[in-house]
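Hey, I'm writing a tutorial for new members on how sequence and structure tokens pair up, and I'd like a real worked example in the thread rather than a made-up one. If someone can provide the structure for the chain below, I'll link this post from the tutorial.
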Amino acid sequence: MREIFKHRVSILVSLYKAEDFLPGFLKDLSRHTIFNQCDVLFIDANQGDGDFALIDPFLKENRDNTRCLKLPGSSIYTAWNQAIRLSYANLVSNWNVDDRRRIDSLEEQVCVMEE
């Protein structure tokens, strides 16, 4: 029996020296057609590079579907696996902060995976 989750898809966002890309990434992310149906987990397996200070206002504004996970000293794969275990959706997608996507690209991907 398939478990019912609150969100359609969890998005794992790895943070590492992302300051230059975060403003554009956050703007693009929030414009996605199904953003309000996503569970967004920002993952930091490093310490102190300032990325969380930049995303804090975004996290506060989008409390219903954004979270942060700090795993200092973990490899990126350990961090991703932990985030998957904590996800609130049946589907999981990995996004990089230096990627740019069409605002409907995630919706299309989710529809295909749900079929």
